[in-house]
Here is the input.
Amino acid sequence: GQQVMQIPQYQHVQEGEDFTTYCNSSTTLSNIQWYKQRPGGHPVFLIQLVKSGEVKKQKRLTFQFGEAKKNSSLHITATQTTDVGTYFCAAPNDYKLSFGAGTTVTVRA
Amino acid sequence: EAGVAQSPRYKIIEKRQSVAFWCNPISGHATLYWYQQILGQGPKLLIQFQNNGVVDDSQLPKDRFSAERLKGVDSTLKIQPAKLEDSAVYLCASSLSGGGTDTQYFGPGTRLTVL
Here is the structure.
């Protein structure tokens, strides 16, 4: 079945710095979703990308869908302590959604 | 709008015991999902219901896990007998209509510890 791979698994960031996390697939995706899970919390939907090359922004978060629709990225600008958590990408696999293993972000104040 | 409700929030049992989890999805959501999330991993789908019918249960260990969604609303997930490797967070989610483009709304989860 469809699998998405996320890199890096862990991201340690100095507060105020930028970073990017990536989600890759071996096959073309119809769409990709991103979720955030705070420590001890549950996944919360962030965004869905559908079109080739699509870019969407949410404040300091920029999401991009690759031209070939095989990869996606999440870029966070000026990281804050509120950005701590695990970011998952998820892609359709028949009728269900397959989640990546996530990128766990920690922030050094 | 009320979110997805789950109970209990925490459960500690010994191996070979049985346990049941309950989920109440967002009102009007036709599709309900049960996921298992082991520490450090992404959620793994156990079973997906569309109304009260099963859409996918390919990753449900059917020798010990069972789930039902009576009347197409609430759902219960049961484990009998539990094994040590079942220790995980069990997440329930719901979506409006199902399929790979739907946004899924997750409940707070039940953290199961099997001793």
